[in-house]
Amino acid sequence: MAAGGTPSNVDLGPGRLYVAPLGTAEPVNCSAALPSAWIPIGYTEDGTEFQFEVTREAVEVAEEVDPIGYEMTRRTSRLVVNMAEMTARRLGLALGAGASRGDTAAKFTPPKPGDDLAVVLVWDRDEVPSANNVRWVFHEAKPSGSVNIANRKAPKKRTIATTFECYIPGTTSVAVDKSASFDVYPNASGQV
Fold it and tell me: How far is it, in rounded angstroms, from Cα 173 to Cα 178?
């Protein structure tokens, strides 16, 4: 028995994650190539995972046993990535040094509390953007939670696991719409 689905809507592949310093011009569609300011995160262990959480709380009145409604009181969005390239740039990104840190042999010291830098992130489904690409733009994000560096016996590789908390852009962001922490640009078929 057919499930009534559309096989071409089943999407495969980890996509590509890019980072840029806060204030970098953001893409406004899914098909334009990213300018050179956008740096690829590179290889990952598991691709990129997007998490979105909504919290609603009950509206209660004394005259009813059941809530009379539920109101959204919080929503959070985050990107989880386990970077497989062990470089100074990726360690700096994971520890809040921003997107400008290069892969140099210069000593790295994590930023002081409060000096960590936000970044802009873009996830593209396709390596070469076109009308078939899908693009997610995360306006402002900072690493949060545990940064885990796994040192393992071969054939497993060392990785840097990082979670980026995404939030509504501030005054230094060039996001067109500042009402949400991210925008999604579906492809020509409406896939996200």
Answer: 9
